[in-house]
């Protein structure tokens, strides 16, 4: 009886904990709490760097890995059978693209694991929130906005995964063809066991593989958003520095007082040193971010060139069905993955342009006097170097593409359309 009396208290405590977690999606976190907790939940769903803490979690972990291995093997067998028996060219193309997508999931999974130490260091840096613009209200507002955007991003991806998985559960002939078992296996196992094997194949396919497909992109996107936020705080710091140093009635006192001139240059150089130290620290972490984003974009871009046009050929040649719409939406979302990264990196460049504008504006307004000519040249040169580097030295690049921007996505759409028209004429 004593155990039953404790049940309501346990339920209430669990309810409070769940409500607190949901509230933390939108509100400020308690002090010292990891702001990446929702990302960790997503990575656990994708089975990226998950460490089981008890026997039940360990059993679930082994079951998850077994299901993923089984689904990958079935995908490989489907592709081999379709390529050996080219009676249906569209089926051969579809199964080849499906297995290629599985391999792409594993590549993205490996990229996260390969750069996990850099990701961990970036998370520590962002959780510390060590940058300050001099305007606490601005800092708090912009950090809260970026935190909310990150939570919405993860929630959107999870909703897409759940909706796609539910859609796959709806019985259709197109689904049975898309997630089929090789005929030789069906004839060997019998009707009943073939049905069980097919359920095991599509029952958790989206949860396992689509979560892996977007895992690296979600991590990279959140880090870009959060690093861009710190860059915006730094840009605000540059702006306030310029306003403070060149405040109203400054030039009159500067020209008439040796003491005012000395105080100006001492204050400017000290403030500039503090801001440049923050800029140097941010650049160090930016290099870590580039090492993650650039190889990720390479695989996303060139995989999209192959997959998008090819899958659209299969969709156009097949009769329209609910499963066809699911495949169409999945392919479109994969293409938009490339666009989303381009958009984030473009917005990152906009912040760098803002810093550059502040630097050049400050340069044009620096006062000059003969007794502080060396200080004038030193500060002016520093500002020009920082401005030039922010404009030209902080870009993300990809092999064979150059700078990553929205124009790259436009090229991707044009090339994918060319692939589509070519295959439609050939097949």
TrEMBL record:
<feature type="transmembrane region" description="Helical">
    <location>
        <begin position="322"/>
        <end position="345"/>
    </location>
</feature>
<feature type="transmembrane region" description="Helical">
    <location>
        <begin position="89"/>
        <end position="107"/>
    </location>
</feature>
<feature type="transmembrane region" description="Helical">
    <location>
        <begin position="63"/>
        <end position="83"/>
    </location>
</feature>
<protein>
    <submittedName>
        <fullName>Uncharacterized protein</fullName>
    </submittedName>
</protein>
<keyword id="KW-0812">Transmembrane</keyword>
<keyword id="KW-1133">Transmembrane helix</keyword>
<feature type="transmembrane region" description="Helical">
    <location>
        <begin position="296"/>
        <end position="316"/>
    </location>
</feature>
<feature type="transmembrane region" description="Helical">
    <location>
        <begin position="35"/>
        <end position="51"/>
    </location>
</feature>
<keyword id="KW-0472">Membrane</keyword>
<feature type="transmembrane region" description="Helical">
    <location>
        <begin position="192"/>
        <end position="225"/>
    </location>
</feature>
<feature type="transmembrane region" description="Helical">
    <location>
        <begin position="152"/>
        <end position="172"/>
    </location>
</feature>
